[in-house]
């Protein structure tokens, strides 16, 4: 209740010039980003790019080495208990108690939270076909992941953070799970942040995308804008084209005599005409899927 | 107004994995469905929530599409009711505005014409003939 003041549009997460150094190695560098309430943010990066390290700092599991990170307006490494209760987290490695049954584990967590949404959990247990009567140690990876997710959303968190949440789920379960994320973020005050390497999931439900590469945020913004600002452009000229076209936002280039294929950021449709006029070339423009964009940014 | 007949399911084909953002796909499809008469003036559109749930996609990209279609004058928003396809609107927009809307298609047409060495006068004749065909 005491945090109602920031429910009306202040960022849920505010990161400024964040850096994280472990030993002599910079794990995260120069990260500045905001998360607005009601959004679904998808965090994308190769293994070891720093996704989990970033989530750890956001959640206050480890302090930043430099810069600042605020969650609900509070320093994330010194979050008051009331702010922590507004967060739900599904870690990559679940922290379920192997000796309990699913039902016992859920009851344990329900007892810890006054805001536990029993009807929601009952519905999801049914829809997701979550086994409750068997001990957790005999469950499959996907079944464990479902229970871990229920534990993270049962107390109706305002900020739900999931680290590789759907990795063990089959396509049907993944789709059901994505629907639930959409349901949660439908509330203008509730926010979802999830890391994944399943690009197709992210492309469906995320409104915002963060791409992490070598500990840096190389993109943080709307998925729609990302797709619009990256294009694969092919120039076919009447004469050989120079190997350096001096273009802004060049991601990659393949030159083969009169034919050049470029991937450009900062694309807008007027550039097609500009390129055609400048190089006397036929210019074709191709839009890239998020997966292709991701691969290009890592080429 | 009661909605006796719910909007037909899956009137759109949304490809989240396409390089074209979902909102742009939706705008194009509504334009086409209207142009082809499949969505007549007064036809109700499924809500943002319905489309997002049906296709499991982020609702902000759907509401962006609806917002832009409304700005374009193609759909109308009603308080507490489904959005509808707007009445035919010849005079709602100035000629300049309508020409601006068609400019991207003209640009790619001109590009194709250049590539094929088609002269402006021949292209214009073709356009005139096509428009006459559609009018009759």
In terms of topology, how is this protein built?
The complex is a heterodimer of chains A (299) and B (136).
Chain A lengths: L12 E10 L2 E11 L4 E6 L5 H8 L7 E6 L2 E2 L5 H4 L2 E4 L11 H11 L5 H10 L13 H13 L5 E5 L7 H16 L4 E6 L2 H7 L2 E6 L2 E7 H7 L1 E7 L12 E7 L2 E6 L5 H10 L1 E7 L2 H8 L2
Parallel strand pairs in A: 3-8, 3-9, 6-7, 7-8
Antiparallel strand pairs in A: 1-2, 1-4, 4-5, 9-10, 11-13, 11-14, 12-13
Chain B lengths: L21 H14 L12 H8 L3 H14 L2 E4 L2 E5 L9 H21 L4 H16 L1
Antiparallel strand pairs in B: 1-2
Distance between the termini of chain B: 38 Å
Tell me the overall shape of chain B.
globular
Side-by-side strand order of the widest sheet of chain B: 1-2
Could you tell me the strand content of chain B as a percent range? 5-15%
Task: Write down how many β-strands of chain A occur, each being a DSSP E stretch of 2 or more residues.
Answer: 14
| Interface with most residues | A-B, 31 and 23 residues
- Looking at CATH, which topology of the largest domain in chain B would you report? Arc Repressor Mutant, subunit A
Largest beta sheet: strand ordering of chain A: 6-7-8-3-9-10
Average pLDDT number of chain A: 91
Number of domains of chain B: 2
Following the backbone from N to C, one meets helices and strands of chain B in this order, namely HHHEEHH
Arithmetic mean of pLDDT of chain B: 86
**CATH structural fold name of the largest domain in chain A:** Rossmann fold
Radius of gyration of chain B from CA coordinates: 18 Å
Low-confidence stretches of chain A: 1-7
- Describe the main β-sheet of chain A briefly: 6 strands, mixed
Helicity range of chain B: 40-55%
CATH superfamily of the largest domain in chain A: P-loop containing nucleotide triphosphate hydrolases
Query: Which class of the largest domain in chain B in CATH terms?
Result: Mainly Alpha
Question: What's the CATH architecture name of the largest domain in chain A?
Answer: 3-Layer(aba) Sandwich
The CATH H-level superfamily of the largest domain in chain B is Winged helix-like DNA-binding domain superfamily/Winged helix DNA-binding domain
């Amino acid at each position: 209740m005491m945090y109602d003041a920031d429910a009306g549009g202040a960022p849920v997460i505010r990161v400024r010039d964040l850096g994280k150094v472990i030993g002599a190695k910079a794990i995260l560098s120069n990260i500045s980003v905001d998360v607005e309430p009601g959004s679904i943010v998808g965090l994308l990066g190769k293994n070891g790019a720093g996704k989990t390290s970033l989530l750890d700092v956001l959640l206050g599991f480890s302090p930043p080495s430099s810069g600042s990170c605020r969650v609900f307006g509070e320093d994330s490494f010194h979050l008051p208990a009331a702010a922590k209760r507004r967060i739900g987290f599904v870690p990559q490695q679940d922290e379920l108690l192997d000796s309990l049954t699913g039902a016992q584990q859920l009851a344990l967590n329900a007892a810890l939270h006054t805001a536990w949404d029993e009807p929601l959990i009952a519905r999801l247990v049914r829809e997701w076909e979550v086994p409750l009567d068997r001990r957790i140690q005999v469950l499959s990876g996907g079944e464990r992941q479902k229970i871990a997710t229920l534990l993270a959303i049962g107390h109706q968190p305002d900020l739900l953070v999931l680290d590789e949440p759907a990795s063990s789920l089959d396509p049907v379960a993944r789709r059901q799970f994505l629907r639930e994320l959409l349901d949660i973020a439908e509330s203008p005050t509730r926010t979802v942040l999830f890391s994944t390497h399943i690009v197709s999931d992210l492309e469906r439900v995320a409104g915002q995308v963060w791409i992490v590469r070598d500990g840096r945020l190389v993109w943080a913004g709307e998925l729609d804008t990302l797709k619009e600002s990256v294009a694969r452009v092919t120039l076919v000229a009447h004469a050989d084209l120079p190997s350096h076209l001096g273009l802004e936002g060049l991601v990659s280039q393949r030159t083969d005599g009169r034919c050049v294929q470029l991937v450009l950021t900062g694309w807008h449709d007027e550039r097609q005409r500009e390129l055609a006029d400048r190089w006397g070339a036929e210019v074709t423009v191709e839009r890239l899927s998020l997966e292709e964009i991701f691969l290009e940014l890592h080429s | 107004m009661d909605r006796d007949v719910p909007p037909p399911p899956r009137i759109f084909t949304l490809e989240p994995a396409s390089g074209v953002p979902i909102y742009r796909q939706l705008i194009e499809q509504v334009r086409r469905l209207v142009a082809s008469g499949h969505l007549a003036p007064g036809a109700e559109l499924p809500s943002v929530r319905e489309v997002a749930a049906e296709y499991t996609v982020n609702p902000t990209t759907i509401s962006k599409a609806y917002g832009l279609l409304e700005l374009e004058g193609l759909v109308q928003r009603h308080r507490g009711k489904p959005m509808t396809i707007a009445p035919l609107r010849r005079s709602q927009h100035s000629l300049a505005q309508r020409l601006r809307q068609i400019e991207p298609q003209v640009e790619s047409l001109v590009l194709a014409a250049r590539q094929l060495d088609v002269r402006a006068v021949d292209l214009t004749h073709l356009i005139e003939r096509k428009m006459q065909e559609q009018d009759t």
